[in-house]
Amino acid sequence: MRVHWIVFAELLLAMTGAFAYYYWPESLALPRTLIPQTISELNGQTVVSWPGRVFVAKIGEFDTALSAYLMSDYLRSQDPLVRGRQVLLTANNTSAGRPYSLSVHLPDDVLAGVQE
Asked: I need a labelling partner for 83 at 20 to 30 A (CA). Which of 8, 11, 66, 105 fits?
C-alpha cells in the first residue's frame, strides 16, 4: 500500500512539473524604437516630435474623383478644421477598394496633432 502512495506522489510531482513548465510565463523581447523621437519643452508644453518625419492624418477615402475633389475643396475652405494646413488629395489606382484618399498635414508635434 505504501508503494502505491509513493508512485502516486511521483506522478503528481511529474504532472505538476510538466504543467509548470508548459504554462510558465516567458519574457517578451520587444524591439527598440527604430525612429528616434525628441522630447522637449516649448512655452511650458511638452513637444514630442520625430526629426525628418511629418505627421499626416487620413480624413477619408472616396470612390470617385469628383467627390474627393469636392471634399478637399470644402475642407480647404473650412478655417477651424484645417487652419491653413496642407490638404492632400492622393490617387491610388492599384487599390481594389476606394482609390482616392484625403489627408491633412498636422503639426510635427505628435501630442498637438493627436489633439487636433
From this structure: 66
Structural domain that includes position 109 = 38-115
In a domain, 56, yes or no: yes
pTM: predicted TM-score of the whole model, two decimal places:
0.56
Question: Pick from 14, 46, 47, 90: which is nearest to 104 by CA?
Answer: 90
Structural domain contains residue 12: no
Q: What is the pLDDT along the chain (116 residues), one digit of tens a residue?
A: 788 899 999 999 999 999 999 998 888 888 877 778 888 888 888 888 888 888 888 888 888 889 988 988 888 787 666 667 888 888 887 767 778 888 888 887 877 777 77
